[in-house]
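Q: What does the assembled structure look like for these inputs?
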Amino acid sequence: MSKYILKFEKDDSVKFVSHLDLIRVFDRAMRRAELPMGYSAGFNPHPLMTFAHPLGVGVASCAELVEITTSEHVEPHIFKERLNKKMPQGFIVRDIMEIDGKNNFASLKSADYAIKIEGEFPKEGLEAFFKMLTEIKVNKKTKRGITETDIKPFVLEFKEIDKGMLNVRLKAGAENLKPELLIEGLEKYIPSFKAERVLILRTQLLDENGEALFRTV
Amino acid sequence: MEEISKKLDSVLPLVQKPSRYTGGELNSIVKRAADITSRFAFCFPDVYEVGMSHLGLKILYHQLNRRKDTWVERVFTPWDDMETQMREKGIPLYGLESRDSLKEFDFVGFTLQYELSYSNILNMLELADIPFYSSDRSEEDPLVCAGGPCAYNAEPIADFIDFFLIGEGEEIWEEVLDAYAVHKKSGGRKKDFLYKIAREIEGIYVPSFYDVSYNKDGTVEAVKPNREGIPEKIRKRIIHDMDKVYYPDAFVVPFMDIVHNRVMLEIFRGCIRGCRFCQAGMIYRPVRERSAENLCELAEKLINSTGYEEMSLSSLSTSDYRDFKKLADGLIDMAEKKKVSLSLPSLRIDNMSLDILKRVQTVRKSGLTFAPEAGTQRLRDVLNKGVTEEDILRSAKLVFEEGWSNVKLYFMMGLPTETDDDIIGIARTGYKVLDCFKKCESPKKANRINVTVSVSSFVPKPFTPFQWEPQNSMEELKRKQQLLKDSIRTRAITYNYHMSQVSCLEGVFARGDRRLSKVIEIAHKKGCKFDGWDEFFKYDKWLEAFDEAGLVPEFYSQRKREFDEVFPWDMMDIGVTKKFLENECKKAYRAEVTPNCRQKCSGCGAASFGGGVCYE
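A:
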């Protein structure tokens, strides 16, 4: 048994592939690539695969992390090369590393997103408006069901680099905010803002020190 | 395309299972529209996960996309949440590969797998902004065509369809596309193209080239060509050599889970059995097999190209495959090597098949299926089912001794000559299987047992020996369902039955005529769609539609037809003759069985195709 962490891209064309379906995507690509996927023991064996942080349906990413266990050792660069030849279009493995012990997915604390919005915007710009807001209360799914939550503290960074182009850092992991919910909150609090089409790209998963998770394994 | 894609970005987050609508799956085929002569929208009038499970689509999609001049795309019926969004945001029905509106295609082709999908066809045409009636469509609209098993009697939708392809699609589609390439080059109207293919390509049926006249009692008087050179009879097309015909070595692999999400191997077409209720058993005659070597090779290629974790066999009666042991051994070895599983359909259980089942990992100790179809030997002989009670009990004994604990028994009710004793016989059969378990003394015997008795309502189909038979009324079916329910008094038997209203509607369209087009149009306007889905089925709306069209559903389904009646589908030549079917019907009344094709040829007429089991 060998363990690897793969950093992969899930582009705009496959952003509606759900998290559950992603397991099948990798399992089948591994089989096509004739890579020795590791399976759990038992009557219903399942592929040994762990994702760092589920991606919402409709969100693209260039920084997804998955841990895959193989039944035999494969040189990491060969693993990456062979898998990439067999991944469906829209998925690309960008980086790979072999690990000895446990993965560091539990140290995930935040995620970066690049958001592009088409619609109507306030004259002052979204960033200025955002800074003035003291709270952003929205209905948020929590362990206790749907409750009204102030999500402003979940937003660690908020930059508007151009009209409708946002770079945000949101809490991720145990305390988590989905970028879609942030847009919904902004629409609720900023009357002149209306998002007609929203494209979201996750660009990084980070640990408590703000370091890229993949680098600090 | 651009415009539709942009709208999808804002719509897809709002609907369930958005990957039904995105395309982009592994092995799907994208071409440059500008390079293409024939753009063909292959439409399956049901939701993605149903349509994507259909083998015919996979075959034609990959085969025809090998042509440089043709681009086949897939289209399914959007689920109602998506339909609402599409209507609100003005998104037309589009091909999954190009995301172009169906209006931009040359062919919009529907596969007709079950009668209850007819209302979805109109809904899809409406979503594509294509007029329903052939006569209302302009030169700018695509050619709307249809094929598949229901095309043998698709008269209820004849007014909506420009041309039907009768029989197996592999060869005839190539000929149609060749003819279309010539037509497009030389110019001309759609009518000219239809006239040409109706005369020159065997198996093409253009409904507008045939006039139907009716008798005073509402039955068909005659179906006659109304143009010179149009054939009186349309002969179905079949593939003669299953080892030479194209079979895909790659399938489109969906992202989401679908009904049959695996490699499917079609081991043969047709069936030697000749069960008298079964349409497939007649229209796909004669039986033609694919060789075990060819199948094992295809299986390996398909596993390599799809990465599927499972494969299964497809045919009408797997146990009748002559080289079954060789095939199973080959596939099981391959499955072990590739770490995939093989799932087998219901087999006739004997020592050989049991050995194979034991080797196959996916057949758990739960779930084995038998289809006695009827509850008494007399009625099974009427059906020509060729299964005796001893067969069933011997199989049950074998599987119980091996530790299986769940047995499913499939039956039908509402069959010709059926009495209440036959209905109670279903319960008796269930009890005998239960008894068999109680008597079993094997050390491997399971602790508990569940026998599931599933009963569907018989629907008489055209091109079967029972095509003259009346269907039971809904009241009669309900009475029989209750009678059976009262006859089963143990928790060890689970009794399942299906809504009889759905079968009644199916019964009307199965043997319907052209006048029903109006009913389908009215029902569509009343919101009927997805009639095969309980949550959508609106029987009262259908009844209103019949009423408004001035037609009586019972005329089609519950009338005993005379042997000399002209049927709306009599212009179709399936090889099997009407005379043979009539004889079979009369033999059914005498509970007389007919040997299967390999025991003795009964002269059904399929030998005229010059191949298959008739010449083994």
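The mean pLDDT of chain A is 94.
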